[in-house]
Design a protein that fits this description.
Layout lengths: L1 H67 L1 H9 L2 H9 L7 H7 L4 H16 L3 H10 L5 H17 L3 H11 L7 H15 L3 H14 L1 H6 L2 H12 L1
């Protein structure tokens, strides 16, 4: 009997708490309903504006920018210094990568143009400008982005900045590209060897062996791996 009374008391308390919470919520909503409705409307307006901006501004602008990329890419593929400059600056009829970057800001295509601009400067041996544009390239196109990180690592390696080179090589091997990843893992292992970080060098070489065995053999990584293992003993 006592247990039933206790259960009844608890149910009453729970019911009262629920009713009190419901009453407080209704009172709060009644007091601040104008503010709440205002916030909801503001959120809906922002969402609608974002959708409209994407549909009527970014999508057509990106399409136009993509069409403009054809000519400079063809100049880039030609590879000679004149064509590379035309790829950057444009010719009499077409814009170059630099104009696309400037005129189509915030689009995916402008981001891609930064990568190609970096490649052009790299081929023209202007490594400072190459690094400048490659560092601006955002991770919107993952395949190109990983390749870009390796190039940045190469440039910092040439500058003698081992810490930054390692940092960017590490980013470049966060994917599983069957061609580029083992190459960049080998570069990373070499960087670790230079700084006598045998443990990390061993990890890099072991990953090539376990995930890219054909490349491990064809690249002759085994002799480097054995040397590193001897340092760990």
């Amino acid at each position: 009997m006592a247990n039933n009374e206790q259960l009844g008391a608890k149910k009453t308390e729970n019911t009262q708490e629920t009713e009190n919470f419901g009453t407080r919520f209704i009172n709060f909503f009644a007091k601040y309903q104008n503010v709440i409705y205002g916030i909801i409307i503001a959120i809906l307006v922002v969402i609608a504006a974002a959708i409209a901006l994407n549909k009527f501004y970014f999508t057509p602008k990106n399409q136009k920018a993509s069409a403009a990329m054809i000519a400079p890419i063809n100049h880039y593929l030609a590879g000679d210094s004149l064509s590379l400059n035309q790829a950057l600056e444009g010719d009499d009829e077409n814009d170059g990568f630099l104009t696309i970057i400037s005129d189509y800001k915030l689009t995916k295509t402008a981001n891609t143009a930064k990568y190609y601009a970096g490649l052009c400067y790299l081929k023209l041996n202007d490594k400072e400008e190459a690094l400048n544009y490659l560092l601006q390239f955002k991770k919107k196109e993952k395949v190109l982005w990983y390749a870009c990180q390796a190039l940045i690592g190469d440039l910092y390696d040439e500058q003698g900045d081992e810490s930054k080179a390692i940092s960017y090589y590490k980013k470049s091997v966060e994917n599983d590209d069957p061609y580029f990843t083992p190459i960049n893992l080998f570069k990373l292992g070499q960087m670790y060897e230079r700084s006598e970080n045998w443990k990390e060098a061993n990890k890099a070489y072991q990953r090539i062996e376990s995930e890219y065995y054909d490349q491990y053999m064809s690249m002759g990584v085994a002799k480097f791996a054995e040397n590193v293992k001897s340092k760990l003993q």
